[in-house]
Specification:
heterodimer; A: about 250 residues; mainly alpha; B: about 260 residues; alpha/beta; Rossmann fold; 2 domains; six-stranded mixed beta sheet; four-stranded antiparallel beta sheet; 10 helices; about 40% helix; about 25% strand; globular; nucleotide-binding (chain B); ATP-binding (chain B); transport (chain B); ATP binding (chain B); AAA+_ATPase (chain B)
């Protein structure tokens, strides 16, 4: 089993190398990149906005309900919401959701191309199929940090609305909380994580789709396996990056 | 012309191609026939470079595939057209875009020139009212025509077809066969067709290579196949009563 995993990891890195060889003609690549931006980024905005807004609200309410001691200031609701959303919720939680949404889309679309011999057709024509299929996804996901930026904003907004209109804190208390002990590096840390997660989100599902074998049933299985591995790698990388960037 | 010399290919312990040599001529429809599991698909994929052979050589008009650099191989592949069993059309593209794809990728033609060439090829394969449709919106026979159009749009020197008639009704199958043969002769292409459709063998078999258990068991043309005494070929080709009767009639009355 260890040999199998090691060989898969090796194959993954060889795939990464292959993505940048024999680039596709720019006029074709440009169209592919715009299409991927539409499929992966624009199409994800709705669900990201919805989840971010309401989870931000829930974080805020949960924090408020746990602050039972009257000596603890109300502005901590805003503080806790900001920290939760910026440090973990937006970059990590949303990326796990995207591993399901974008990841399964990527795996199933590439996997279907494999099953229906479309990838063979590209190769026979002399096209570097990995560059053609995966490179545009990588470029499109460079915009992923913008999605996470929107998620951060809406998460905090959802928290503010839940706290203020739920009667847990006044607008000024929440605003004070948001501004209390703000460390700009936390935002940088979140975006560094997001950038790394974007690369993971583009490449691991592509790997599982590209190298899948079998028929339609296996496409479904590959999507599930891809979601599991993308999530596992995101969680592990999250831990490593947090240790490297935040621990003193 | 494609020359194949003693190619062998194994997957693990299983040897699928056990040393096949043959010559596939230009301007002819070369048919590879044999039972399921005889190694036809592996043979075709080896010619295409999708499978790397263990030993032996494949040369395309004197250019030996194994001696080529990666760039030379990619260059060679631009001279190859391939019709896949399931057509392998790109789902996200329209018929026009599918056919124009090789031109867009490998030539510096303008949009107008591409459009003209695509229209010409669409006309050549007798496709009507399909330009802007997606592959999922057209029939299996039309998909095959689109696949043929895409394969020939960039004037290939070599055309490979994997079971071009599978899933088609007999009438459409004959139309597709005749289309492939016409194109082969018109453009002097080296065409290699992988099939076990006996109608194709009898209609367009300019050269027939019969594979059995990873070996070439017989080769000849559509007239010789009626007369051969090779037991493996007669067992395979005349497995149906209809073809047995056809053979008897042909041998009795001559072709």
């Amino acid at each position: 089993m260890l040999i199998r995993y090691t060989s898969q990891i090796g194959r993954y890195f060889l795939m990464l190398q292959e993505i940048f060889k024999k680039p596709t003609k720019w006029s074709v690549m440009r169209t592919l990149i715009f299409k991927e931006i539409d499929d992966l980024i624009i199409d994800s905005l709705g669900i990201v906005c919805f989840i971010s807004f309401f989870v931000g609200g829930v974080v805020s309410i949960q924090t408020a309900l746990n602050l039972t001691n009257p000596l603890i200031p109300k502005y901590l609701i805003g503080f806790a919401t900001r920290q939760s959303v910026i440090l973990e919720f937006a970059p990590t939680f949303i990326s796990i959701i995207m591993a399901g949404k974008m990841g399964s889309f990527i795996t199933s679309s590439i996997g279907t191309m494999r099953v229906t011999e479309q990838i063979d057709a590209l190769e026979v024509m002399g096209v570097n199929s990995l560059n053609y299929l995966v490179f545009p996804k990588l470029v499109a996901l460079l915009l992923y940090p913008f999605v996470i930026g929107i998620s951060m904003f809406l998460g905090i907004l959802g928290g503010w609305i839940a706290a203020v209109y739920g009667g847990f804190a006044s607008p000024s208390e929440f605003m004070t909380g948001i501004q209390t002990e703000f460390i700009p590096f936390h935002v940088t840390y979140a975006f560094i994580k997001t950038f790394v997660f974007a690369i993971i989100l583009a490449t691991i599902p592509s790997f599982h789709g590209y190298y899948m074998k079998g028929g339609a049933l296996e496409v479904g299985k590959a999507s599930t396996v891809s979601f599991v591995w993308t999530s596992v790698v995101i969680i592990l990388v999250n831990y490593i990056l947090t240790q490297l960037l935040l621990a003193k | 012309m494609i020359e194949v010399k003693d190619i062998k290919k194994s997957f693990g312990d299983q040897m699928v191609l056990k040393g096949i040599s043959t010559t596939l001529d230009a301007g002819k429809t070369n048919l590879i026939i044999g039972q399921s599991g005889s190694g036809k698909t592996v043979f075709l994929k080896s010619l295409l470079g999708i499978h790397q052979v263990d030993s032996g050589t494949i040369s395309f008009d004197g250019r030996i595939y194994s001696d080529m650099s990666d760039d030379e191989r990619r260059e060679l592949r631009t001279e190859i057209g391939m019709v896949f069993q399931g057509s392998a059309l790109f789902d996200s593209m329209t018929v026009e875009e599918n056919i124009g794809f090789p031109l867009k990728m490998f030539t510096n033609k303008t949009k107008k020139e591409i459009k003209e060439r695509v229209d010409f090829v669409i006309d050549r394969v007798h496709l009507v009212n399909a330009h802007t449709k997606k592959p999922s919106e057209i029939s299996g026979g039309m998909q095959k025509r689109v696949a043929i159009a895409r394969a020939i749009v960039n004037n290939p020197r070599y055309l490979f077809c994997d079971e071009p008639n599978s899933g088609l009704d007999p009438k459409t199958a004959i139309v597709i066969d005749n289309l492939i043969q016409e194109i082969t002769k018109e453009y002097n292409i080296t065409t290699v067709i992988n099939t076990h459709d006996m109608n194709s063998v009898m209609e367009i078999g300019d050269k027939i290579v019969f594979l059995k258990n990873g070996l070439k068991a017989w080769e000849g043309d559509k007239t010789q196949i009626f007369k051969t005494d090779n037991e493996a070929v007669t067992d395979f080709v005349y497995s149906s009563e209809l073809f047995k009767k056809v053979r008897e009639a042909v041998l009795k009355e001559g072709l």
